[in-house]
Sequence to fold (709 residues):
Amino acid sequence: MSSRFGRALERRLPLIVVSPLFAASLVFVYGFILWTVWISFTRSRVLPNYEFAGLLQYERLWSTPRWHVALSNLVIFWVLFVVLCLAIGMLLAILLDQRIRIEGVIRTIYLYPMALSFVVTGTVWKWIMNPGLGVERLMQQAGFDSFRFDWLVNPDYAIYAVVIAGVWQSSGYAMALFLAGLRSVDDELLKAAAIDGAGPLRIYARIVLPMMRPVLMSVVIILSHLAIKSFDLVVALTGGGPGYATDMPATFMYAFAFQRSELGLAAASAVMMLMTVIAIIVPYLYSELRRR
Amino acid sequence: MTKFRRLTAVAALLGSVCASNAYAEGTVEVLHWWTSGGEAKAVGELKSAFESQGGMWIDSPIAGGGGDAAMTALRARVVAGNPPTAVQLKGPGIQEWATEGALNDVQAVAAAENWDSVLPPVLAEIMKYDGNYVAAPVNIHRVDWIWASPVALEKAGISEMPTTWAEFNAAAEKLEAAGLVALAHGGQPWQDATVFEDVVLGVGGPDFYRKALVELDADALTSDTMVAAFDQLRILRGFVDDGFSGRDWNLATSMVIRGEAGFQIMGDWAKGEFLAAGLVPGKDFYCIPTPGDGFVMNSDSFTFFKVAGDENLKGQQVLASLIMSPGFQKTFNLAKGSIPARTDVPLDDFDDCAKRSHEDLLKATEAGALVPSMAHEMAIPRSVRGEILDVVTTFFNSDMSSKDATAALAAAIQRAM
Fold:
């Protein structure tokens, strides 16, 4: 009797353990996604209001110049952040892979920025790049009077200042992943290629890099999600400024929902962000799942 | 003699405490974001005054984000049907909540104590919904001040304080020629907007200010006067140093304190920084109104939410009466650096800048030159204010022409309405 009960319990245990988590994510993730979508079709301002108002908020959103700035900033930041992190990370990994001395120390140094939060990175780079305090002042005091480095306060370049700080923080992480990938390439294979007369350049281009495709994919995905949800870095580094020159969709959404009592408009911008992510993730998942 | 006077004062105080104990009780929960420095001290005054009347005070401070976090908490609590008794909430935000039906009125207290006769009418109007008081103001901040450093001015050879924008520009040029920063400014949208609204008042006068920034009249927003205001803002932009972007207002104030910068245009909360540095108004620093013979008003208030139960309602009424009592208005504003919202409180213990502010307030009320601040959420809803701030800060941080700025302003307001 008790053993039958025990067996039944054993069979259902995974279900029992997983179901609260399942229910919680159903409500708190997907439930609220649906709620946000609904709010985006209403006139909600201070408080949520459930009366359907069509595409009004989307029309307002797309006629707001600040939203266009936020979107173009996201594209600039995303592309530059991912490409630069990949390039620098790969280069550092290949250099470190040359069996040099004190590799462990160097690897740790490059990896350390990852241990900081984006808030710390933002604050530190805010001081480094401030024209009155940081690099510009240092160089001018060293005698280079015409030296200018005012990207942080220049609305046309401020977004690139954000890229610099982001790349500094994350390229070490890309390096670590690539290094792990490089180490997993079979030595025999490289020796065989060398015996066949392939130079080092050719070995990397034709053998090593293609074998690292899975690593590359995961690095791109991780860096991309960092780029899309970049909020703390922007807030700490520029506060969205000068003006709103470094606004991102995430900071835009925050400003409208919590500072301006524009729940409907903020919900519309959140839905646009979700759509952007879906447009990228779904084809990727599709191609990955079909292969199996 | 002095000993005797002190004794009678103590006796009078004791008497008032005992008298109030006879009627006052009740519970209030107060949601606010005054958590640092003089502000925390000021709200502490309110708490101890309320408790000394026998009431129970539940403090709900929500720090961070200049009130954004508190507003989020408030929204959640109102939706859940559990609002706090009173919330630090001001300007048209009061009307927004009132239209949602979330507020209680304290008209009975206001009528009995005749608030109408002691508050400036412009301010009283903001505190009312449907003709009934739903909020009580604790102070008045003046936004249109120029703070000046005598040391810097002397170095640049300036003896007269500017009274027009042209004179201000001339003085600023002298400061720059002397190798000083002419205008200490922090590049944050609300600071840009503070300077902007002071300029609009100076260039267009109070009536124009009201038409453009309170009534949001499209013709006024695109008028030549507005273009001229933007032109003046562009000139001011030239007087700001390179490192201004993102700088906090108090760092800009300390540039004036150290004599590195000549002027700062900022509300009278900047005074606290000067006083904390041990400077004496009129001697170690000057406060003069920005050109234009007006008064841009900012005011903090407590808004009364819809609570139920005798205990809570009682507390709400007692709190309303207490906030508006002359004694509290005096102690609170001495701690916070502003002036009482009641115009009948004697200002003997206040400093010269506060006295000047009070005099000008009375004069401006008389002349119809008292205007609510746009940048500090006194004039228009937060959504519209946000759109104006976007335009002003973009203008300040780019080389946009004044004409384009007025067009962008009109478009932004149309979108936000």
